[in-house]
Amino acid sequence: MSTNRGNRIDRVSAERLLRGGLDVRETGSRRLADLLAAAAAPHSGGPVAGETAAMAAFRAAQVAPDSGAQRRSMLKTALAKIGTVKVAAVCAAVLGVGGVAAAATSSGAAGPLGFAGFGGPRAESPRPTTKPTGTPSPRPDHSVRPEGLVGLCHEYIGRDRDHRKATLDDRRFNELADRAGGRDRDKADRFCDDLLRRWPSASPKERPSGTPSGTPSPRSTDRPYGDRPGGQNGGQDGDRDSKPTSTTSARPEAPTTNSPR
Amino acid sequence: MGVLEADLHAARDLTALVVAAQGGDESAFQTVYRTLQPVLLRYLRVLVDDDAEDVASEAWLQIARDLGRFRGDWDKFRGWAATIARHRAMDHLRSARRRPSVAAPAEHFAELTSDQDTATQALESVSTGTAIALIAQLPRDQAEAVLLRAVLGLDARAAGRVLGKRSGAVRTAAYRGLKRLAELLGPDVTENDPPTLKEVT
User: What ipTM was reported for this prediction?
Assistant: First the structure.
């Protein structure tokens, strides 16, 4: 039905246009078809924006999937301040190579986004039952479990500077304030910088057995899709409550919902 | 690296890539990123205009973080990622206290309605950036429905999940959007097509 009637379009034609699975020129408005085709056209080539930051986030999440929330907030703050170009360096810092990230987070104004409601309630001290053994604690003479402090520090550093004082006044951060030497932002900044440099992950015992590295591995990026590990499950029907299909991911905490909020 | 349009529809391969990325395969994640990010950016442009890249960056941080918890195929992954991107965009709009409507430069519209070119340029004649800018002129619910369906390739139900609406509402919004676009573009009285603009995304 090539009724080239200009701007007249019915619902059936609209549906066909939106699906884009047939010759869009037969659906009533050529201009409209052209427009939609242009909107959906393949990327024109060249670099895809933000890839460095995304890959850095991916690596960080691989190293410590459990503390992703804190790590993300930290990365996010750093990102907001120093831009995506330096993210790789930030990530390296987060992973224990240096103190760049912590320094970056304590040197500027608030990030552009309100960050509070992200990812549900912020974690309390993570996993009080997992006690790392044989890992150096920054101040072993205190009784507080280091991983709890690391979580607090991640959370603390993740706040923008204007909110850190209020954060220290929160009773939940008593441990941090005590250990840092008072409810003083500078002291807490320094303490957390130091702690996170030495103890980048809130859950050291759940790290992969290999030594985590902040440097990108020089992998080929244009490998054919077909030879990847992980199997195929393209037959998934996309129902909301579908079962897990991944055989390569066995994260202990993984719920089966995809609610991204 | 260019991404073939066919990639968007090669659901099985891309599902495998998502699974591989969930298992820690960095190059798989990179390919997923390169495939999805361009269209995600187009969607975000409709919502936050020039801040699209910043918001996309936020979204990818969350995607990378929560990837292990995702369950589903490529179709679902697109919807999941779009939902995350939308949440971050809404956060952004709230924090910026800004209206999401985008005022595209007038020349975009003039270009799309120009009758001075030849028909030979056909599909390629409208640049992606111009097309997205024009769609962004629609009321937001219509623009989002059109983008999610025509650009991200979601069906009405999946788009409805992203938007928190029923599929019927999405169909109606998309239909109204297309109708409005057709009006803006004018009738196909000639075989002329708009001239080329440089590719934006």
Answer: 0.78
Chain A contact probe: residue of B40, B188, B200, B201 with most A CBs at under 10 A: B188
Contact B58, A111 (CB under 8 A): no
Is A214 a member of any domain? no
B124 vs A190, more confident: A190
A23 at interface of B, judged by CB pairs closer than 8 A = no
Do B13 and B42 fall into the same domain?
yes
* B150 in a structural domain: yes
Residues A5 and A107 in one domain: no
Residue type, A87: V
Distance CA A27, CA A218 (A): 47
Co-location of B10 and B90 in the same domain: yes
Q: Which of residues B200 and B172 earns the better pLDDT score?
A: B172
Q: Give the domain range for residue B27.
A: 5-96
Lowest mean pLDDT among A176-180, A250-254, B157-161, B181-185: A250-254
Show residues of chain B in contact with A222, CB under 8 Å.
Answer: 1
**A141 CA: distance to closest CA in chain B (Å):** 33
> Given an 8 Å threshold on Cβ–Cβ distance, is A39 in contact with B150?
yes
Q: Which of B16, B34, B74 sits opposite A48 (nearest CB)?
A: B34
- Each residue of B72-108: pLDDT tens digit? 999 999 999 999 999 999 999 998 775 545 544 444 4
Q: Does A29 touch chain B (CB under 8 A)?
A: yes
Q: Which of A2, A13, A18 to mutate to probe the B interface, most B CBs <10 Å?
A: A18
- pLDDT tens digits, A220-243: 333 333 333 333 333 333 333 333
Looking at residue A83, what is its pLDDT? 52
CB contact under 8 A, B12 and A232: yes
H-helix segments, chain B = 5-9, 11-22, 26-48, 52-66, 74-96, 106-113, 128-135, 140-146, 156-163, 167-185
